[in-house]
Description:
The chain has 3 domains: 3-241, Aminohydrolase, N-terminal nucleophile (Ntn) domain (Glutamine Phosphoribosylpyrophosphate, subunit 1, domain 1, 4-Layer Sandwich); 244-426, Rossmann fold (3-Layer(aba) Sandwich), CATH 3.40.50.10490; 445-598, Rossmann fold. The radius of gyration is 25 Å and the shape is globular. A hairpin with a 2-residue loop joins strand 9 (179-183) and strand 10. By secondary structure, it is an alpha/beta fold. Helices cover 35% and strands 24% of the residues. Fructose -6-phosphate is lined by residues 300-303, 347-349, 352, 355, 400-401, 485, 489, 606. It catalyses: D-fructose 6-phosphate + L-glutamine = D-glucosamine 6-phosphate + L-glutamate.
Amino acid sequence: MCGIVAAVADRNIVPVLLEGLRKLEYRGYDSAGLALIDASGLHRLRSVGRVAELTAQVEESHVAGETGIAHTRWATHGVPCERNAHPHISAGLAVVHNGIIENHESLRGRLKALGYQFTSDTDTEVVAHLIAHELKTTPDFLSAVRQAIAQLQGAYAIAVLRESDPSRLVVAREGAPLLLGLSDDACYAASDASALVQVTRRMVYLDNGDCAELMRGSYRITRVNGMPVERPESESQLSAEAIELGNYRHYMQKEIFEQPVALANTLEMLGAARSIQPGIFGAESETILGKVRQVLIVACGTSYHAGLVARYWLESIAGIPCSVEVASEYRYRDSVPNPQTLVVTISQSGETADTLAALQHAKALGMQHTLCICNVPESSLVRENSLRFITRAGPEIGVASTKAFTTQLAALYLLTLVLAKVRQRLDGQEEAAELHAVRHLPMAVAKILELEPQIREWAERFSMKQHALFLGRGRHYPIAMEGALKLKEISYIHAEAYPAGELKHGPLALVDRDMPVIAVAPNDALLEKLKSNLQEVRARGGELYVFADADSEMKESNGIQVLQLPEHYGALSALLHVVPLQLLAYHVALVRGTDVDKPRNLAKSVTVE
Ligand code: F6R
């Protein structure tokens, strides 16, 4: 949700700002802008659309400057248009913002009464006017920003530039990510490290409530109340190649094909041992996992689907009751807390506002045993949990999550095995066999990826449709949900998922020759029942596309297309069956010519409620 880059240096920083925005574009891409100070004063350029449009404008205007802030937007308040694009300006101050200012209406009313004129519909503009107003009585730039943000409610990361103080920038964060990048002659800030590895690997992650002043080659951090604080410096491990497209056409395609490596990296900590160590979830995990009597998983979107699959594993293999909740619902409903619960949050980014808030809510209800499964080690979520598992999928840039999902599933399966072991439901032989199966995952995914040509063919036929139904049973029902989500996100085909047994209770009414039905049909205990459900579809003229296991004995016939996955994988088949669905969505989107990596209306990291 919006990306921020800011820099103060002793050279022209425009190329750094633009390259940083390009890297952050996954966070929002409806408009972009930058503000700079040069010898003649403050300049602002804004454009609707992608960073490329802004770059063209910058090239045309030849602007340059040593201090600047830049922004790529995902609209919350006010439609995407130049007037609403950041930076917003007030009395020689420019502000970029990521997040939502919840009390913006009352602040706007107050500032209007004081004579400030608003030129946009955004909540951000109140921040610019508020700081300008504070500067009237508090000449120190950092103190004025602190006084202004003390009046804000909501979530924000901001960067502020002041025409009359060209050698410094002020940044602050509360509930939205922001980090500093350091070098000998410059200081930077950005929403994530990918924007800054072009210039430095030395990073300092700000905490909520931190406010920092950035100068060339130095910085100082204080809390909102002015108390100085120090935050540790760390070396970013992000490799430049990991965030480049390479020979792929889209990031989503790259990330689908990176899954064998992402899984191998995630599973690396298992080594070659025949037994699994609870310590992979953190130093205290053996004690904590030994105490818990139930699991509550909270997450959003694709990460929520990973949680739904895990519920089947946790209950059947580890024998522990598990509930799974959409984070945005859980945080607002009255629930019955149990202190012996392990609260598991799952998030690719670790910055999803709803998931963070749901975790806070669970803790406030007295549930202190918390574990997160996350792909970003420095994220807010990781810092707020007592136990953690970092998936090593590498940066995921395509908006539609793929490799993060399969690595989350791998982590959740390991959690299942550890809980089963701690609860004495797994003997040594079973444990070794399970680990053998887990280690086989990268290879199994690689084999499935070889099915791409067949899936591409299906996509051609499929792409003219306006609607689709996805069916699955048991732990493959969440996989059907994930397949439907992928398809709707990037191809804009309306897709819904149902547990196959529910079909006759309503959705069967939708089935006709124009409604393709995609079925996830592994060879498990529910296969025969699923086959009967599929007959019900066929009898109504529905066209079936079935993803079966090699030994499912599903035959192609008129109106039934079958694609056989190479092997049969038991409990882990849910992780594997999602891969062809990712490829199907990708190829359908390609045929339909949509923007695969940046689908309309979406953004990668949802840091607003
Ligand atoms: C879908 C997708 C989203 C995210 C959701 C949660 O492809 O990517 O549904 O899964 O926004 O994001 P994280 O996992 O970062 O918390």
